[in-house]
Amino acid sequence: MTLSWIDGLAADSLAVKDRGLAYGDGLFETCLVKAGQPLLFQRHLDRLSAGAQRLALNLDLPLTERECRSFAGEVGEGVMKLIVTRGDGVRGYAPASNATPRRILQAGPLPAYPEAHAQQGIRLFSCQTRLAEQPLLAGLKHLNRLEQVLARSEWQNADYAEGLMRDISGRIIEGVYSNLFMVKGGVLLTPDLRRCGVAGVMRAEILALAERENMPARELDLHMADLQKADEVFVCNSVYGIWPVLGIEHLNWPVGPLTRKLQHLVRGLLDI
Predict the structure, then answer these.
(1) All domains of the chain, ordered by start, with CATH?
(2) For burial by CB atoms within 10 Å, which of 55, 74, 223, 267 has the most?
(3) CA 135 to chain centre
């Protein structure tokens, strides 16, 4: 599948002056598409809108939404990636006040994740790459993913389906391409992302599900010592849903009942 649009038109090349290429000046969303419909799309739009406001991108959100829905209709089934950059710029960091954001849409096939990841669980690799603390960018899915690139390059062993990332102070933050939850005493816990990390769409959906199902949930600082006390651990994103975590380093956990309950609820949202 090679479908791609730039600013609403079929295209596969980009201006060399684009600030997304030069500085990572922009945002992106990766969305599952089924039957021509982008799933969890309002949450993707909400995060995109919040990111555009924080980066002062003059993004036409209604136009972007219309293009994404039309593009998803062309995709049918697969993964849709939306990249929004600040557009073209001259040399230098200072953005032009009248810059016109560029909208890039790309399609890809559904990822072939092993069903065992969801059913039997996965093990996490303990990444040495640390996430820098930058509250101005915390939570955003911005275009600079070099920390994740370095972290993902740390392992090639297929025994690990995902890696665990911490910040420079040692706090647990997230997976390389997922968010992390743990369960302790029936309470759902997930790392506080006010310093760094990506506030995932599926993470937001799970917190909303927890509230609706009267499951106690908290966002707080978590460390490896907290993992040692966890009853259940799982990771999530908006493409594969939820994967139970069986262990990391010397720590091990069962696939617990709260993880299974949330998996069932999430499968209905993603039709998987």
Answers:
(1) 4-108 (3.30.470.10), 115-270 (3.20.10.10)
(2) 55
(3) 17
Among 29, 30, 85, 162, the active-site one is 30
Q: Which residues have CB under 8 Å from 259's CB, separation 6+?
A: 183, 232, 234, 242, 244
Catalytic residue among 29, 141, 162, 190: 141
User: Is 249 an annotated catalytic residue?
Assistant: no
Give Cα 139 to chain centroid, integer Å: 10
Q: What angle do CA 126, 166, 217 make, to 5 degrees?
A: 105
Can 174 be counted among the known catalytic residues?
yes
179 CB-near residues (< 8 Å, 6+ apart): 190, 191, 197, 198, 200, 202, 203, 235, 236, 237
Cα–Cα nearest to 180, from 146, 207, 215: 207
Q: What is the pLDDT along the chain (272 residues), one digit of tens a residue?
A: 469 999 999 998 998 999 999 999 999 999 999 999 999 999 999 999 999 999 999 999 999 999 999 999 999 999 999 999 999 988 889 888 888 999 999 999 999 999 999 999 999 999 999 999 999 999 999 999 999 999 999 999 999 999 999 999 999 999 999 999 999 999 999 999 999 999 999 999 999 999 999 999 999 999 999 999 999 999 999 999 999 999 999 999 999 999 999 999 999 888 75
Nearest to 163 by CA among 183, 144, 142, 179: 179
CA dist., res. 250 & res. 197, Å (int): 25
Put the strands of the sheet holding 26-34 in their side by side order: 9-10, 4-6, 102-108, 78-85, 26-34, 37-38
From 67, 162, 174, 232, the catalytic residue: 174
Q: Check if 30 is active-site.
A: yes
DSSP state of 36: T
pTM: 0.94
